[in-house]
Design brief:
The protein has about 525 residues and is an all-alpha fold. α15 packs across α20, α15 packs across α22 and α16 packs across α18. The relative contact order is 0.05.
């Protein structure tokens, strides 16, 4: 029965279709091009604005509730202000212009490294670190602009100069920071405000950790950066609006977040050290801790050498503070420069507690070889304990290519008719090749020699320091170091003053005597 009904329904549909053909004709055909044209005209007639704002019209009033219309006007004003601050024109040409300016900035950086830090310029690993940090930070900035985060000041821009200051030095950090801020100014809205705020905060970040001695400086640095941001922001607002009432303190939140994120730079520095094998001031600060395992061992096995190393560290550090350089580096080098003496401590006079001298049973040649071996043994111990190469350099160079003069002269006296082979009595070198290693050589020599003074006086200490440094200059021990005669003279003055203080030398204040002389 159901099948019959279904068949009848199909027949009725066919009949109705045949009947309708005789009375209905198609009089509407879809025209795609005409439809698109009508749509475009309709879209063009839609207003892109919502209402109108007259010149000098008050948009929002302090203390009043912001409704939807007022909020729309404020957002529209912000968008227009930011759009007008951006470069307009053909996009390809704008991109090409950006490429030219960025290339110029990077070229200036490379020129700076070539002239002032050739060691970094010739080291692809260090160049890679510099470029990767710059590209990552610019990439983060570009991403933040693209997604339109509420404020670009959330980005921890000051972490970049901090990283470069701790990994390299102040000059590199300042140069890179200036170039990065200028490049960022090409892309950000309100570029002058951004450049000024980041430039001043970055300089404070660099200066606040110029000499890193304690970890507390990280916190102090963060507070100073935040204070700089706030002070600069208030100054900019007052410059534009001339009233404290226009300062919105909620705008300080991005600066606070940025400074908090800047603290992440410190674990990043540790990662860079491990990945690329470089040494930051953080590592040097840890090495200068006298409770480190190697220094504790030195103090137990060779207490005299340990005390000598502490005095040398104080002398060298004071000199570097005066003439410029890395005080942490020279202090670390001074503390570890004689660790090789732990192997045979009693063969070095500062560790001999009695009058028994083991050298009396040896020939001058044998004694010289034991003395010289402390350099090679020290290098071996340092590398076994995974000490940084920049610290090992102080062990290698603190005697340069000088001779063990005492045993060399003994050999000549014992064998007047024999030609003595000088190479047996010479340290392997190399000579110092940096300001820090040169200062350590001077400090080491004058401190050791001062211990032999029977009656330390102002005159004897002055003569001793001058004699030792002049002797090093005659032996051309500083020819490869970037240290000037003026800096050597300044270092000598520091050594004299500190040695007089150590030996409690009284300064003669007799004015009449001075006039007579």
């Amino acid at each position: 029965m159901g099948h019959w009904k279904k068949t009848k329904l199909i027949e009725h549909k066919r009949w109705l279709a045949e009947v309708l053909k005789n009375y209905i004709t198609i009089n509407f055909v879809f025209n795609e091009s005409q439809t698109n044209k009508v749509e475009q005209n309709a879209l063009a007639n839609i207003s892109t604005t919502r209402g109108m704002v007259q010149k000098d019209e008050l948009i929002a009033e302090q203390g009043k509730i912001i409704n939807n219309d007022t909020y729309q006007k404020l957002e529209s004003l912000r968008k227009v202000f930011e759009d007008e601050s951006r470069i307009s024109g053909e996009q390809n040409m704008v991109t090409f212009g950006h490429f030219i300016l960025i290339s110029l900035a990077m070229s200036l950086l490379m020129v700076f490294l070539y002239f002032f830090r050739r060691d970094i310029f010739n080291n692809n690993r260090l160049l890679f670190i510099i470029f990767i940090v710059i590209l990552v930070m610019l990439g983060v900035l570009s991403w933040a602009i693209k997604i339109k985060i509420p404020s670009l000041y959330y980005i921890p821009y000051c972490s970049v100069p901090i990283i470069f200051r701790l990994l390299f030095d102040t000059r590199i950090a300042l140069n890179i920071h200036i170039l990065m801020v200028l490049v960022a100014g090409l892309f950000v809205p309100n570029s002058f405000d951004f450049v000024f705020l980041q430039f001043t905060a970055g300089m404070v970040a660099i200066y606040s950790i110029r000499t890193l001695v304690k970890r507390e400086q990280f916190l102090v640095s963060s507070v100073l950066i935040l204070g700089t941001y706030i002070l600069a922001y208030v100054g900019l607002v007052l410059t534009r609006n001339g009233s404290f009432s226009t300062i919105y303190w909620q705008d300080i939140l991005p600066f606070t977040v940025s400074v908090g994120l800047t603290l992440l730079a410190y674990p990043l520095i540790y990662a860079f050290e491990k990945l690329f094998g470089i040494v930051s001031d953080l590592t040097l600060m840890e090495l200068t801790n006298s409770n480190s395992r190697l220094l504790r061992e030195l103090s137990l096995k060779a207490p005299g050498t340990f005390q000598h190393s502490l005095q040398v560290a104080n002398l060298a550090e004071a000199a570097i503070y005066k003439i410029g350089g890395n005080p942490l580096l020279v202090r670390a080098g001074a503390l570890y420069h004689d660790i090789g003496k732990m192997i045979n401590p009693l063969y070095f006079i500062e560790n001999q507690k009695t009058n028994d001298n083991p050298h009396e049973e040896l020939t001058p040649e044998q004694s010289a070889q034991i003395i010289i071996s402390h350099v090679l043994k020290g290098i071996e111990m340092a590398r076994k304990n995974q000490m940084p190469e920049v610290v090992i350099d102080f062990i290698r160079t603190h005697h340069g290519t000088t001779k063990v003069d005492y045993f060399y002269n003994m050999a000549i006296k014992a064998n007047p008719d024999k030609v003595i082979d000088e190479s047996i009595f010479k340290y392997p070198g190399p000579v110092p090749f940096s300001k820090e290693t040169a200062v350590l050589m001077m400090a080491d020599s004058v401190e050791a020699a001062s211990r032999a003074l029977k009656e330390p006086t102002e005159e004897s200490i002055n003569n001793l320091v001058d004699k030792i440094i002049d002797h090093k200059l005659m032996q051309r021990q500083f020819q490869n170091a970037d240290i000037t005669m003026r800096e050597i003279s300044e270092s000598a003055k520091i050594f004299k003053a500190m040695l007089k203080s150590i030996y409690h030398v009284r300064i003669d204040y007799d004015l009449n005597k001075k006039k007579d002389s």
